[in-house]
Design a protein that fits this description.
Keywords: Cell cycle, Cell division, Cell membrane, Coiled coil, Membrane, Transmembrane, Transmembrane helix
Shape: rod-shaped
Subcellular location: Cell membrane
Membrane topology: Single-pass type II membrane protein
Distance between the termini: 130 Å
Mean pLDDT: 86
Protein name: Cell division protein FtsL
Largest sheet: none
Oligomer: single chain
Number of helices: 3
Order of helices and strands: HHH
Helix content: over 70%
Structural class: mainly alpha
Function: Essential cell division protein.
Length: 115
């Protein structure tokens, strides 16, 4: 019986001994290498494309804002010129200018034009 106990103790002793870990050399096949390289190339291409598109969008938006600003300025100038035309085309001003140039008002030759 002691022999069995010794064998059991030896087996337990053997089982408790730390096992050496082996380093596994991972061998990649050519196909796996090509898949990884193509994945990284695609990821790089995609990221460059996205950044390039964002850069282009930024510049287009900047141009649109500049155009909107210039349109607003031109509309303001147009409104100012319209007001000036309205002021210069009043009946009293035209009559005064005509008298200044030596013209007289003949009621028989006046024709009324309506818009």
């Amino acid at each position: 019986m002691q022999q069995k106990v010794q064998k059991v103790q030896q087996e337990q002793h053997v089982q408790r001994a730390p096992k050496k870990k082996r380093k596994r050399n991972i061998r990649w096949t050519i196909g796996e290498k090509m898949v990884f390289v193509s994945f990284f190339a695609f990821a790089l291409y995609s990221s460059v494309t996205i950044v390039s598109n964002q850069f282009t969008i930024y510049h287009v938006n900047k141009e649109v804002q500049q155009l909107q600003t210039s349109i607003e300025e031109q509309e303001k100038r147009n409104r100012d010129l319209y007001v000036q035309v309205q002021e210069l085309s009043t009946y009293e001003r035209i009559l005064a200018k005509a008298k200044e140039l030596g013209l007289t008002l003949n009621e028989n030759n006046v024709k009324v034009v309506q818009d």
